[in-house]
Amino acid sequence: MTANTLVNSKLVCVALNDKAQLAALEGAFNEAPYKKPPTQPVLYYKPRNTWSVNGAEIEWAKDFDGVDVPAMAVGASLGVVIGKEICRVSAEDALDYVVGYTLVSDFSLPEESYYRPDIKGKCLDGSAPVGPTIVPADQISNPDALRVTLSVNGHLRSNFELSGMQRGVAELISIISHIMTLQPGEMIAVGFAGDRVAVAKGDRVDAQIEGVGTLTNTLGGA
Amino acid sequence: MRHARIIFEGRELDIDISADDRITTAEGEVLNVALDSDQITWLVPVKEPGTIFALGINYADHASELAFEPPKEPLVFIKHANTLTGHKQVSYRPDNIDYQHYECELVAVIGKSGKNIKREDALDYVAGYTVCNDFAIRDYLENYYRPNLRVKSRDSLLPMGPWIVDTADIADANALKLTTTVNGKVTQDGSTKDMIFNVPFIIEYLSKIMTLNPGDMICTGTPHGIVDCQPGDTVVCSIEDICSLETRMVSEQEYYGDKY
């Protein structure tokens, strides 16, 4: 585990929060095994073994035979940092509990199915770098107006306007705080561009939000 | 030896419990109190809870009851410490739901870090065993990362304890009677021998994906015999030679009080 991670005790990620992605997958989501589109935010955890930092090398994953996996992918999200214990708050009050913002990159195996919890894909050691710092909340007037970009080796690969999220930051905090009480330092990665970006061994990945910073990591295995 | 964490006479204590039920604190003080005394407040026995791995559909009979094919590999989902509560504490039933059931499960508590752990070495990484009740609210199931967090990650819905039994004291963790009672009536009567993927298998599986760390827990799933529970019910989950875990159900309003 990375000792100096910015995350305290919990990192909740929101999948399928890109309206364009939901629209594109609507047909599939009306068929088995999904049967109908999600009615609630689709949440997953990056557990503590995944937490890492700006500048860290991301280990290239191995399959169950110990062989390097053929493909990995990355998504980037605004990370919302909880400042005080938060239990069952309304969307109107939710942003009062945010102490700051940061970036979360989610390195994983390519997303193939959303039916079962993706332990194999999402729980790789060191696969959730967070940083570079936590920017105080008062420096971000409207988190839903931010734009998250991902560049690989200096080339722009993904550009996600958070106005395109199915649910905004305050609504997500409210919904999640009705499922679980959140503690100071816990984080929510509120939304990733629907199209995850393919990465290769040795790639440099820059996740960036203007006013929040640039989170840079390099894939290992080269 | 058994190990627990309690509050007694206003002090939070790590205790050892001997075979004759004598309680000794970490500082060597012998407590003159019976295990069933109301003077003891039981805390979650894992002092620094890490990642909680829980298995779904891990008993052959439970799999058939729910009309699923038994899985070809473990169905694992993750929970965090907000779900944990101790023995003789309360768990809540959300408002306006039809079906919330207990799941009595054997828990393996990880005692040392490891990655790529072989099945035959796996128990070296287990500090001990305890019991949990991995409550589920079936109304909230959706087919996205199922069982989704709304079903399985709610506050208080993973009672655990009262204590951890040393791994060495359990000759075969897959030969233990497992029962649940609701208000004194037996509703679940199974055995850990019906587990599909046992603890060594799961440790090998998970540690091929990621590093396991001390304080991580593996909740191994439940056999058939799950029933709806209501506020006011007392649910007792027991596994032979490990422990019995008692939980009182309350309403959402009673649980959250001022925050309701």
TrEMBL record, chain A:
Fumarylacetoacetase-like C-terminal domain: residues covered: 10-219
One protein family per Pfam: FAA_hydrolase
SUPFAM superfamilies the UniProt entry points to: FAH (SSF56529)
UniProt key word Isomerase: yes
GO molecular function annotation: 5-carboxymethyl-2-hydroxymuconate delta-isomerase activity; 5-oxopent-3-ene-1,2,5-tricarboxylate decarboxylase activity; metal ion binding
Keyword Nucleus among UniProt keywords: no
Xref: InterPro entries: Fumarylacetoacetase-like_C, Fumarylacetoacetase_C_sf, HPA_isomer/decarb_N
Superkingdom as given in the UniProt entry: Bacteria
Key words of the record: Isomerase, Metal-binding
NCBIfam families from the UniProt entry: HpaG-N-term (TIGR02305)
Protein name: 5-oxopent-3-ene-1,2,5-tricarboxylate decarboxylase / 2-hydroxyhepta-2,4-diene-1,7-dioate isomerase
Organism encoding this protein: Marinobacterium lutimaris
TrEMBL record, chain B:
Top-rank lineage group of the source organism: Bacteria
Catalytic activity: (2E,4Z)-5-hydroxypenta-2,4-diene-1,2,5-tricarboxylate = (3E,5R)-5-carboxy-2-oxohept-3-enedioate; (3E,5R)-5-carboxy-2-oxohept-3-enedioate + H(+) = (4Z)-2-oxohept-4-enedioate + CO2
UniProt protein name: 5-carboxy-2-oxohept-3-enedioate decarboxylase HpaG2 subunit
Keyword annotations of the record: Metal-binding
InterPro entries xref list: Fumarylacetoacetase-like_C (IPR011234), Fumarylacetoacetase_C_sf (IPR036663), HPA_isomer/decarb_C (IPR012684)
Function: Decarboxylates OPET (5-oxo-pent-3-ene-1,2,5-tricarboxylic acid) into HHDD (2-hydroxy-hept-2,4-diene-1,7-dioate) and isomerizes it to OHED (2-oxo-hept-3-ene-1,7-dioate).
GO molecular function: 5-carboxymethyl-2-hydroxymuconate delta-isomerase activity; 5-oxopent-3-ene-1,2,5-tricarboxylate decarboxylase activity; metal ion binding
PANTHER family, per the entry: 4-HYDROXYPHENYLACETATE CATABOLISM PROTEIN, ACYLPYRUVASE
Organism from which the protein derives: Marinobacterium lutimaris
Keyword Electron transport found: no
Pathway this chain belongs to: Aromatic compound metabolism; 4-hydroxyphenylacetate degradation; pyruvate and succinate semialdehyde from 4-hydroxyphenylacetate: step 5/7; Aromatic compound metabolism; 4-hydroxyphenylacetate degradation; pyruvate and succinate semialdehyde from 4-hydroxyphenylacetate: step 4/7
Family recorded in the similarity comment: Belongs to the FAH family.
The keyword Metal-binding appears for this protein: yes
Pfam families registered for this protein in UniProt: FAA_hydrolase
Domain Fumarylacetoacetase-like C-terminal: 51-249
GO process terms (BP): 4-hydroxyphenylacetate catabolic process
